[in-house]
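JOB MANIFEST
job_type = single_chain_structure
chain_count = 1
residues = 385
[input]
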Amino acid sequence: MAVDVNEATGPVWDDRPWAPLPALRGRVDAEVCVVGLGGSGLSAVAELLDRGVDVVGLDAGPVGAAAAGRNGGFFLAGAADFFHRAAAALGTERAAALYRLTFAELDRMLVETPQALRRTGSVRLAIGQDEVDDCRAQLAAMRAAGLPASVYAGPEGYGLLFPRDAAGQPLLRCRVLAGRCRMRRARLFERSPATTVAGTRVTTPAGEVHCQRVVVAVDGRLERVLPELAGRVRTVRAQMLATAPAPEVDIPRPVYARFGYDYWQQLPDRRVVLGGLRDRFPATEGSDRAVPTAALQRQLEVLLRDGLGVRAAVTHRWAGVIGFTEDRLPVLGEVRPGVWATGAYSGTGNVMGSLCGRAAAQLAVGAPSLLADLLAAPATATTTA
């Protein structure tokens, strides 16, 4: 059944029952408390379990209910900036090393949750001559660094093809990971927002975790959990829609266009997922409310019909909130004594978030992290979100 632009249905990914986990009541003790049970938080929990650490995980809502389960389902390698821009800011060697870390993480994710991901590659479409020129610069930089990319020319237009990227069902991945962590005796609690966070104690409305250290793994609204990050992190809204099966189009891999502001994919059952246009509504989309708006949804539907040629009915409309940093590099480090934070993935949280969650767990237990080393040096990016 078609849904009106004024309706919000929740994400298309929420397509199967989920048995709620308990809320935290009373006191529990653990070596490490992880705040956030999206993709990055669950990766942190799994990494801690691999290291034999006793861990408790908390989330303000259900598992994967925030950015991790409300995005467009793109699993892309690399940092948030296109590679040539990342190389200009970080240096080519450092940017390439970061890119290769995301390749390794994506390979790991495909093995870890094959039911939730499929390797499809992705396409960046060039809309206008300035983006054509930018694609050429990106391709030249990637080829010089030995990273896989090629020219794309297809029914949608001209751009670049990245063969190692993937598409997937992000909420299913979170739920699978949560189930495995619980089987390994991690204690996970939903609907338990962290009201205070210190290195040895995290409180919720009805309980508290006493611990030795804390990992906060949150993408959007990270600056709410840790107000000292407010000058570095800002949260914005991203809106999406999905359709009934659309046999009239064939979109074999995820596509992003207009410098990444618009993005779409077709699922294996032929439904189309489309998001974007945030830059066209700056007055409203600098919001931390995960609620779609009629004005932006109308324009998404115009893009769906006139740009993609999809006639199928719109069945889902939803929004998520995501964190951005000015340099478009994620937060990763100790922000309070005994509190390590990661988040604000600038729109690329599915792969980078998983990588950062594991890195934050490593740092919290005193282990080395190559990712942390790569991110530690100062950088000045030239692009904005």
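[summary]
Residues 380-385 have pLDDT under 50 and may be disordered.
Residues 328 and 346 are 6 Å apart (CA to CA).
exit_status = 0
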